[in-house]
Amino acid sequence: MGEVRKSRSSGCFSDFLPGDASPDSACDGSDLDSEPDSDVDMLCCHRVQDSLLSSASRFTDYRGILNWIIILLVLTHAHLFLENFIQHGFLIDLWKVLVHLIQDDWPSVYLVMAANVFAVAALLLEKCQDKGQIPAGVGHCLHLLNLVVLMLFPSAVILQQDTCLSTGGALFSLCIYTVLGLKLYSYQEANRWYRQEHCRAPGITCCISQESGERTDHLTLGDLYYFLLAPTLCYQRGFPQTPRIRLNFLLHRLLEMVVLTQLMVGIVQQWISPLFQRTNSTFTNMDVTTRIEHLVELVAPNHFLWLILFFLFCHSCLNFSGELLRFGDRHFYGDWWNADTLKSFWRKLSVLFHKWSDRHLYTPMYVIAVPLRTCRLWIFLIMILELLVAVFLGRYFTGNYGNGLVWLCVLMGPPMAVMTYFHDHYITYRAQPHWTLY
Q: Where are the transmembrane segments (predicted)?
């Protein structure tokens, strides 16, 4: 026994660096909770190892800290909710929202229905080109003309002075037209590649049918509208499909959509609306101190609103649509919360747009300003500033520091810029009849 103690103790203080510690002994921290079970542990209880919170320890199990942060956030914002309720009372009124939609948004319904004209026109152009009735160059120009009119038509209707479109209806209509424009561009591009029997854009894999007899089978209204309703922006012949529709999965997503929509309305009515009503001037006319104070007050509700909107659209709505259509590719988003650069964040936040931009070209710049009928240069500069941050600071902030920078930009970047658009629009037009912030 003495020999064993001597041999073990002599090797206890062997010369090695902290980085050389094995993962089993230095990473999981399990040895910290172990009890001494032999005389060897009593004689030799120390070895070279790093503290768990140091980066060299390679320790990653922070679940307890995450739970602590979640509980702290819930308690903190529960206090804010209670304070808001004591000061303003209960302001949530879902019926008010429904009445507003029924009364004011029928013009937006007509505007969305008119979008079918552009979709059918794209199908007819593809059929004419496939039959050789229109040259390829002429057909491509007509497609681009159809897309230009599609993008300008809703803006022209919304920006009319006598239009009765509500802000929500205008925003919804313009989003529908934007998505339709992206889909129809991919539709005509992919079909042009199929006709040429090869892909001219690098890095794109096409599913090309080799049988000439099946060449025009996909040019049907059913195939077109399946693509328009499917949760994707990129067209191809034949999409992967699941074997059946899971009813339980469908009902869960539907319940999420109902609950999250009500939660968003509640945040706007109970939290954001009172903050808007406290001021009588736009952000442009505020002094610097008041502007910063107002922005800080809006950070939390605005961030919660965008997180809920992300889950509602990217998870609940897209999965509901995919399940209903048995659409197999459900890779709608990545782990953007772990992104350590802004470029990685935007790529993972919306895989659909990333796929489309890789395959084609996409630059979304006018979706918010047009329905609100306003434009603020300094707000636009915030979005440009985030691009500069992604290019320059992304080289120096990596890992955990880069992830912290990403979350800072999520809190104070484009989401806050969008909120300031709505704030200034509310201050400018709230005196007009039939205007409401719910």
A: 65-86, 106-125, 137-159, 165-185, 254-272, 304-322, 377-398, 404-422
Cα distance between residue 78 and residue 74, in whole Å: 6
The sign of the CA dihedral 334, 315, 182, 342 is negative
**In 180-250, at which residue ranges do the beta strands (DSSP E only) sit?**
none
Is residue 125 within 8 Å of 187, Cβ to Cβ?
no
User: What residue spans of 89-135 are helical by DSSP H?
Assistant: 94-104, 106-130
Listed residue (370, 417, 431, 435) closest to 170, CA to CA: 370
| Burial of 224: CB neighbours in 10 Å, binned 0-12, 13-18, 19+ | buried
Residue 184, C-beta contacts closer than 8 angstroms, at least 6 positions apart: 118, 119, 122, 143, 146, 147, 150
Amino acid (1-letter code) at residue 269: Q
If you search the block for the tokens 């920006």, which residue do you land on? Answer: 159
What digits encode the pLDDT tens for the residues 126-170?
999 888 888 888 988 999 999 999 999 988 888 876 767 777 778
DSSP-derived secondary structure letter, 34: P
